[in-house]
Amino acid sequence: MLDAAQRKAEELGIPEVLCVADAAGYPIALRRLDGGKVTSVQIAMNKAFTAAGHRKPTHNYRNALPGEEAFGIFTQHEGRFTVFVGGFPVEVDGKVVGSIAASGGNGEQDTAVCQAGIDAFRRHLGR
């Protein structure tokens, strides 16, 4: 997953930080590409934590914006919950088995990088 995500990031010219987490949202692989921001390390880990733990992409939390029902949720889990684009759950047979996250590009770039990793994982499974 990380190799495919890294190839996409390099294709886009983005110095990303990549994180793959287990189903509980804890990192099992972390990679900071050359030029990747030190501050993006924690952001990528938090995106992976949120996507795995809540079983949906991090950008699907519009209800966490000010004035909405879930506003303030990002203060939970020691501040690890994030609504930035770029964290995606990884599913096998409808069950979340982990997540992948990227930090360093804009939302569209982070999404493309993560999707490349997910696509590689699916190919590995023969799906």
Q: What is the radius of gyration computed over CA atoms, rounded to a whole number of angstroms? A: 14 Å
Task: Give, in spatial order, the strands making up the sheet with the most strands.
Answer: 2-1-4-3
Poorly predicted runs: none
- What is the H/E order? HEEHEEH
Domain count: 1
Q: What's the overall average pLDDT, rounded?
A: 92
Write a structural description.
By secondary structure, the protein is an alpha+beta fold. The chain has a single domain (2-124), classed as Haem-degrading domain (Beta-Lactamase, 2-Layer Sandwich), CATH 3.30.450.150. It is built from three helices and four strands, in the order αββαββα. The protein has helices at residues 2-12, 39-54, 107-124, and strands at 17-22, 27-32, 87-92, 95-103. The chain has a four-stranded antiparallel sheet, with helices on both faces. A hairpin with a 2-residue loop joins strand 3 and strand 4 (95-103). Helix 1 (2-12) runs antiparallel to helix 3 (107-124). Pfam families: HbpS-like (PF03928). InterPro entries: GlcG_carb_metab_protein, PduO/GlcC-like, PduO/GlcC-like_sf. This is Heme-binding protein.
